[in-house]
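Standup notes
- HV: blocked on the assembly model, inputs below
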Amino acid sequence: MISVSIIEEIIKVVGEKWCLTDPADMATYAFDGFFKDYTPDAVVLPKKTAEVSDVLQIANREKINIVPRGAGTNLSGTSVARRGGMIMPLTRMDRIIEIDSVNRCAIVQPGVVNAELQKAVEPFDLMYGPDPSSWYVSTVGGNISLNAGGPRALKYGSARDHLIGLEVVRANGEIVKIGSKTSKNAAGLDLPHLFCGAEGTLGIITEATVRLIPLPEAKHTLQAVFGNLDDACEAVSEIVSSGIIPSAMDLLDQILINLIQGYGGVQFPDGASALLLIEIDGHPQAIEQESEKIKQICHNNHAIDIVLARTPEENEVVWRARRSIGGTFSKVCKTLINEDATVPVSSLPDIMKKVLALREKYKLNIGIMAHAGDGNLHPSIMTDAQNQDEMKRVDQFAEELYREALSLGGSLSGEHGIGLAKKSFMSMQFEETALKMMREIKRLLDPNNILNPGSYLDEER
Amino acid sequence: MISVSIIEEIIKVVGEKWCLTDPADMATYAFDGFFKDYTPDAVVLPKKTAEVSDVLQIANREKINIVPRGAGTNLSGTSVARRGGMIMPLTRMDRIIEIDSVNRCAIVQPGVVNAELQKAVEPFDLMYGPDPSSWYVSTVGGNISLNAGGPRALKYGSARDHLIGLEVVRANGEIVKIGSKTSKNAAGLDLPHLFCGAEGTLGIITEATVRLIPLPEAKHTLQAVFGNLDDACEAVSEIVSSGIIPSAMDLLDQILINLIQGYGGVQFPDGASALLLIEIDGHPQAIEQESEKIKQICHNNHAIDIVLARTPEENEVVWRARRSIGGTFSKVCKTLINEDATVPVSSLPDIMKKVLALREKYKLNIGIMAHAGDGNLHPSIMTDAQNQDEMKRVDQFAEELYREALSLGGSLSGEHGIGLAKKSFMSMQFEETALKMMREIKRLLDPNNILNPGSYLDEER
């Protein structure tokens, strides 16, 4: 609990309206996109960097935990108050400070919604690379803190690849500005990237300078339906080896196909067991040829139906069904757990086989979506957190899945982070010397462990 | 000086042949690409990670300075023994461990020469992004330590943008492995990037996993000659704004044109005052159209001669003259100092004007080359380090140049690093809180300050 006098001190900084302690509000902020809830003691919503700094000085002095968050859409439990304390949504800091179209970058506050940034830069024929499924609500600050990706990370990279400058507030309240607008920069230590993917454990991002990319001239999407998953995986391998880099290549299994069948009028043919959505973008003539090549590869791998979407409207139709998946889960299960195992793309067929075997072994209802082109697998486990027996099998499934992904040279996360979900697996991926270095950096920057404590960086775990 | 017993201990680790103390050898390793020399006490050339670790344990225990280096081509004085101690070239660790063409990455030891890696991956239709002018001798480890770029960083980014994994040895000898082969990775703190651009001050890179890029299908180079520098700068602005991202766009001024005039049979027309070399690559039809567009832009900006190189042989001819610059300097001056001021590309005309004014003001012989597309300026000061009066003006020129670049939102370095050359300017670019954080990280990872001491990270400067 936080004492009344401390709450009063914080109210002096942010104003009464922006320091919440009401139980109803606490319940609202007890969740993120993961399924475990932790009720915070307070929620503080700063409007500017100086307020973040003042609140952190108080929190650091009083050893009060602070969990920064954007929209709280994270799927690994990185933005809940695992050890109590205050949630600090940065959502009121939502100003696009500058769009610099010539230097192709934008300076934004952390609470700017990804989709709002995309919309704001589109008139300049530019886009921001990261496109997480949550893009219409998740924030740029949250995207950076989690090193978020999305389907088009395949071609354009994740948040890390688009970050060139940050303003962060340290645990002690110090404001640090790092990076510049230049596309090249070899001066000083690369501090911005240290905070990217740190899940709010090292400092609080209060401003970011991000690269923008020219909007591609044209875009095609191939929707290829296969009679079995193996054929689809083989097609992915051949496309990757062909030298073509699609802007997205998502793979859905039969369970997900059945789930979205009929959505928005979309109908897949009988026997559809795997669906590939392959988006390519770039110069119109180049993608005409690439489309043809990809079509041929899908054909050679026994695709039973191929649709080529050329216009923005046609593209929208084929992607709409794919994007609808998130919404449909709530109709079929109480709790959805989204895994994020990632392997080198050459190991996609292996990990896919493993997932199928584990699904069988643990008798779980799992739909499989993969950003197939970069080996980023999202098995969606449809379960019920109240069912203890099933949840035990979910845990066993996850552990075996990640162990396999790591044995194939993979990673515990492609884009969702570690959070609560995979904290206990970190020693499977990293040797002790690496984890030690991470914990030393954490202790250096946050000696009182007030920033998002309860993470894999805690000294006592 | 290092005691005989310590040298003997080090010899036990690497073998007698690979621990040098002979004065002639020390003279060889007293220099890098900057003009100041510092004679080391010893040179140790390890063959494997375990040897690096053993040597560091001895050095850390005895507080002996270690300066890691690749080929020692650095232009800012980052790889000389500024505070004495041992130079540690990683050139014997020169094995390409793996080329993974499907996952488009390579695992290399730090001493692999950039050009050797390029040659090795070319049969797989792949390339390594960074292409510093020194690529035929400089090493991948050195490139990463300096966050090196090159002409094509404009499109493909610098070393930072291609780094996905590292093995480093800490000052205390601990071996830390971080990163993976997956193109997406959101697990753990982003430690690899902390060591990229750290100039060997935080740890010694003993292995790197780097991304590879598909070789472009086709390549064109436009060589456009202008009657004055303003017109060339205006053409650069228009090309950048057009949405085309060339793979390189280098600008040379009249002094450099005169220097390379006639080299390899290359002849520029009378009145040539500025030269633009614009390389575009990608799909053949796409670059045909882009060439046309760029040609038109150059034409509209009063280019007096435009040559379009389409074949590999034609490309080679136009770039040969440009690449010859480095060699020609030695004929016209005793000491060459290469500056590396970088600005947002929109400020290129401003910084160019400033350089011309400063060249006049300080009466220096300066040829100007710029990676114009990313605002990375390399004024080459042709001087004589023995001429104290002139060297004073060189210092004044540099300080004014960097002050101007920073006031335009730029950086002290685009690709050469800080080293000795710009150490005293760091507080012009970074606020004290940022420098403090960098120094804290340095002290954490290297408490005895044995790794490349004398840098801007020293506590006492």
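- HV (later): unblocked. Residues 1-215 of chain B form a domain with the Uridine Diphospho-n-acetylenolpyruvylglucosamine Reductase; domain 3 fold (CATH 3.30.465.10). The longest helix of chain B spans residues 388-407.
- Next: hand off to the docking folks.
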